[in-house]
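Dear support,

We are seeing what looks like truncated structure output for some complexes. This example has two components. We would appreciate it if you could run it in full and send us the complete token output so we can diff it against ours.
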Amino acid sequence: MKKILFTILFISSIFLISDKVNAAVVGINTLSYDIYENSDLVSQGSIDTQSGLSINNVTYYNIHNPSTSNSVDIKGVNANGSYFIFYVKLYPSSEFLSSNVITTINGYVRDNYSNVYNCNVNTFMVSDQKNPDLSYFSFTCDLTSLGDKQIYSFGFNYNSLTKIDDFRISNFYFYSAHSGESGVIGSINNSTQNIINNQNQMANGIIGGANKNTQDIINNQTNMANGIISGANQNKNDIIDNQDKNTQDVIDNSNKNHQEAENTRKGIFGTLKSVLESIINLPTKLVTLLIEALTNLLKSLFIPGDDFLNNWFNDLKGGFEKQLGFLSYPITWILEILNKFLTLNDTGHYIISWSAIKVPNFDFNIIESGSFDLASLLQDSTIKAFHDTYLVIIDALMLLAFMNLCMNVYNRIFGGEVDNYEYISVDEGYNIDVSTGEVTSQWTRQRRTRKERVV
Amino acid sequence: MIVEAIMNLVKVLLQVVFALLPDVPNFDITLLDSLTKYIDMIFNNLGLLGFFVRISTIKTLVPLVIIAINFEDVYHFVMWVVKKLPISTN
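Here is the complete output from our reference environment:
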């Protein structure tokens, strides 16, 4: 749990830092990249990172059909067994880009032996707005267990339901826990967009210049007027402040003299009182110290050190993976699942997506691929109110069930456990004719009772 | 100290036992890819769960439930160790 919390804090801090860091690229000179569409290579090139962090003139126009699988591989990266944060901003320029464009997204790294290691999805956000700050995704690849194994490439693949004209990628961050290096590995910008941006900046500059001159004249006049008014106000306030200060000084001096006289009177009695209090409190202090010592002893006996569990588990995991081969994967997967569970986030979008279903041997779709965001139902205020109430009830039920579980565990350990049992009571009777003494009829009544008893 | 010693002992024992076993081969990469994709498919769509139950509630309660379920065993283990300590209660 400590490791996971640490990882979460670590990743958060890296994200905070990564926006600020514009450090030079350390140790990586050239990265090559391949872009695939349904396993077909559609774009290839290299990125020179020596000249700086910004790589221009590399454009990826990803024109593809809906529901295809795409992947981007960035090669030549040596992660050196470290944490690897992989942060991608989308530059939406297409009118088709909307919240349900990308249905699944997976980050991965490959080593020299083509082994694939999956990364955890930290954030995944695609906004309706054409703003790269609102459309992004990121992964964390924990490669610490791989040691110094060379990482050949890292990348991601995604499935998209809608045609995307221009899908651009920017800013890959990494943090090497092994070597302590951090920075931006590379970015891919769009040259066309740069030209448009430059033109827009120039146009804005001209308009801004003209506006600025007019505004400067107005500001100067306003400042002069404000200066005269504030000067007059300042003089008035200074006089009032001086008078207040003198009055407060007289009161403070009087209070100080009174306090000094009081302290001298109480000095002797106060010392005697504190000595007596110390003697009275001595047993309490001794008991407190004894309890602290016992607590520390028990802690050292039962609670392992900070890094002990982490190291113990990593040692064992490494041995397992080496020796057990494929048999170790269940453990790896359980850990991955737990990690993914802990990094699970409520994005506010609950998208159900499905693939197209084809008739065998015919090029005809029975059911077209599609997706539906359940969050769209919540736009109706009545449904949202019902949904909120439903969530509160579910929370309450889960809490009650948990408390019931806790009570049962307590009863099992410390007694008071109740056991259900059943008993049967049988009554039999006879009807007798009083005049003759003859038994006229007989009856039997059986009753089952269920009760709880303390075991 | 006690827990660390016991866990180290368990680790050494496991390492000795595994050292005797032959190396088991790894998964085929394609099979591994398929399995990973399948697991990812489940977890990438797990956000849907948030519509029915609050994710924050699940994330809070599941670790607590795991602790509560295992608490009895942990308690008995701790008591077993405590009883072995030469501390007089009289």
